[in-house]
Write a structure and sequence with these properties.
Structural class: alpha+beta
Number of helices: 7
Radius of gyration: 16 Å
CATH architecture: 3-Layer(aba) Sandwich
CATH class: Alpha Beta
Shape: globular
Number of domains: 1
Strand content: 15-25%
Number of strands: 7
Helix content: 40-55%
Largest sheet: 7 strands, mixed
Length: 196
């Protein structure tokens, strides 16, 4: 069963996202290698607790094996992101420059119009292949459709592109991140009219 997350889910959800992203090319490129797992977990915890829950929407599977964190139009996350910037830079460590240059390279490919932004989605490796990733993403897609706005995401793993295409996303840009960063795909899903 899929449900919306609560504050009580943050720690276990951060654990699930950390397990899912431990070898992800983007986070390996933008978060320091020393104490990488600890840094990655704190990134995920902060995003859940300070951005996703108060300023977006978060869905989890019942056993917290899968998590999807969305930023939403009019969520008011801007001030919170600014407040977190110094902590994020510290967590990035010696990869802070790579993190900043990656964000600068990605920004022009992001929608200018209001959109639901799938900031992070992950499934614990032990639970992958059971459809949980799709299951935690779908409520956000339905909510974006209900608002009549597109959904957007970025991925740095080619295998994920087909997964997202199956959910209706189309690649709008494909590019290499600077400083030897990974190839990244920007993907947009136009709203599907609700059947009435």
């Amino acid at each position: 069963m899929i449900r919306e997350a609560t504050a009580e889910d943050v720690e276990n959800a951060a654990d699930a996202l950390t397990a899912a992203f431990i070898d992800y090319p983007f986070t390996r490129h933008t978060i320091a290698g020393d104490d990488h797992e600890v840094r990655l977990r704190e990134f995920q915890r902060l995003f859940l607790a300070e951005i996703g829950l108060p300023h977006g929407r978060v869905w989890v599977s019942d056993g917290l094996e899968a998590v999807a964190v969305w930023s939403i139009p009019d969520g008011g996350a801007g001030p919170a992101l600014e407040r977190l910037l110094s902590r994020m830079v510290k967590l990035a460590g010696d990869r802070a420059h790579a993190h900043a240059s990656a964000e600068a390279a990605m920004e022009p490919h992001r929608p200018q119009e209001p959109a639901w932004f799938l900031g992070t989605v992950g499934v614990r490796p032990s639970a992958q292949g059971r459809g949980l990733g799709r299951a935690v993403i779908e409520p956000g897609l339905a909510a974006a459709d209900a608002e009549g706005v597109p959904a957007f995401l970025e991925t740095s793993t080619e295998a994920n592109v087909k997964v997202y295409e199956a959910l209706g996303f189309e690649t709008t840009a494909e590019y290499e991140l600077p400083d030897g960063g990974p190839r990244t795909w920007a993907m947009l899903r136009r709203p599907t009219p609700l059947k009435g």
